[in-house]
Amino acid sequence: MLLSSVLLQMRIICKDVSAEVLYDVLHDTSYRKKWDTNMIDTYDIGRLTVNADVGYYSWKCPSPLKNRDFVTLRSWLPLGNDYMIINYSVKHPKHPPRKDFVRAVSLQTGYLIKANGDNSCVLYYLTQVDPKGSLPKWVVNKVSQFVAPKAMKKIYKAGLKYPEWKRKHDPHFKPWVYPEQNTLPTVNLEDLAIQRADELENIDESGVSEERTHISDDEDGLAKD
């Protein structure tokens, strides 16, 4: 059985991590390079409003699958003591698909961080992604059973270590909280368009063997600094 779209729903309780801290972890691209071992590169392209921007993200797929990348429009909203971050794929004229990656599509991805007391929270994650490849069902099963849960645990562990890391790295710089700190160039909305999956090349990876596919057992993934 081959699948062209993947839908995942996850939830994790984060003890000793406040909703505010986890919100910062998900925004801070400098810190992400320390804990997201699946990431190849990420950067902000430009801003639309005080709570919306466009960014690039690429990540390593389990070998021998081809690596994927995204260009997404992201928006965020504090909801009292809770927080929401959502994104979906867009086309940007200066960031077309690259030959060394498969351009995947986030149909809709969201994080909801709900406070659970003064120093605890619950992270909810929902994503529907078209990886632009005809993937065997066993690939999707591995992602949902192993890769995604590990990623949620990495976010939690990153949250535990973030306050100490941030104290040493521009502790007052949080443009997602203080928009006056944002120095990104402005992106014109008319330059963007929704990235539709059927406009991109579909990669046939249906013949990939489960025995040849390696998924890392790395649990922590936090680089030393």
UniProtKB/TrEMBL annotation:
<feature type="region of interest" description="Disordered">
    <location>
        <begin position="201"/>
        <end position="225"/>
    </location>
</feature>
<dbReference type="InterPro" id="IPR041951">
    <property type="entry name" value="STARD10_START"/>
</dbReference>
<dbReference type="InterPro" id="IPR002913">
    <property type="entry name" value="START_lipid-bd_dom"/>
</dbReference>
<protein>
    <recommendedName>
        <fullName>START domain-containing protein</fullName>
    </recommendedName>
</protein>
<dbReference type="InterPro" id="IPR023393">
    <property type="entry name" value="START-like_dom_sf"/>
</dbReference>
<dbReference type="InterPro" id="IPR051213">
    <property type="entry name" value="START_lipid_transfer"/>
</dbReference>
<dbReference type="Pfam" id="PF01852">
    <property type="entry name" value="START"/>
</dbReference>
<feature type="domain" description="START">
    <location>
        <begin position="1"/>
        <end position="164"/>
    </location>
</feature>
<feature type="compositionally biased region" description="Basic and acidic residues">
    <location>
        <begin position="209"/>
        <end position="225"/>
    </location>
</feature>
